[in-house]
Design brief:
Layout lengths: L7 E6 L4 E6 L2 E3 L10 E6 L5 E8 L6 H12 L8 E10 L14 E9 L14 E11 L4 E11 L17 H17 L1 E2 L9
Antiparallel strand pairs: 1-2, 2-10, 3-4, 4-5, 5-9, 6-7, 7-8, 8-9
Family: Belongs to the MOG1 family.
InterPro entries: Mog1, Mog1/PsbP_a/b/a-sand
Protein name: Ran guanine nucleotide release factor
């Protein structure tokens, strides 16, 4: 399946307080196991990829790129020394998220693309990935002092991708990461907050 072939549906997040479009093949992990209240996790039923939404207290780092890298370090803690960062971009305006007042700044996001080893949880499994692509986006909701993360994880399992199709040096992402980028763009284009009370605000 190419990025152009992905079918989407609108999904309610956090009990309907937020919403975004996700691929129809992605299912809610909370249907099979417990997920922390500040997270929403969806797995691809026809592959190995996943997408995680996470509400975090805004880190006291004014620079967006530096704050994004801080969150990335938390995500890949044990593999930080072996991580490779492909690109880091931003700020970009999130068109579907509108500030709550006319005086507020436009909601902005920063994105980083990295690859890491499989990580402790995936090591030793029958289908252990050769590496994992991590597409991390941080949406800064300044008015509610929140860093909202969207993380697309793309494990590359031997036999499921063409060797040499992914190369950070030459910028070759391969089909799996290309689909992840398309999914990220769709999510950011449709992400909305329906109830700001989710962030402790009335």
């Amino acid at each position: 399946m190419t990025a152009q072939d992905i079918q989407y549906r609108s999904v309610q997040l956090y009990g309907g307080a937020m919403a975004a479009d996700l691929p129809t093949t992605y299912s809610d992990v909370s249907d099979i196991r417990q997920v922390p209240d500040h997270q929403e996790v969806y797995l691809d039923t026809q592959g190995y990829s996943s997408i995680i939404f996470e509400i975090l207290q805004r880190v006291e780092i004014p620079d967006g790129e530096a704050a994004l890298k801080h969150h990335l370090a938390d995500l890949v803690a044990e593999d930080m020394n072996d991580m490779k960062i492909w690109s880091c971009s931003g700020p970009a305006v999130v068109p579907s998220l509108h500030p709550r007042s006319d005086q507020a700044e436009k909601v902005q996001a920063w994105t980083i693309l990295a690859t890491t080893p499989p990580g402790e949880k995936m090591r030793g499994r029958e289908r252990e990935p050769a590496f994992v692509g991590v597409l991390l986006t941080m949406v800064r909701l300044v008015e509610v002092e929140t860093d909202f993360l969207v993380v697309v994880n793309v494990p590359h399992v031997p036999g499921e991708f063409e060797e040499g199709s992914v190369d950070a040096v030459t910028g070759k992402m391969g089909p799996l990461l290309e689909r992840a980028v398309a999914i990220r763009e769709k999510v950011l284009g449709t992400l909305e907050v329906r109830d700001w009370g989710l962030f402790g605000e009335e």
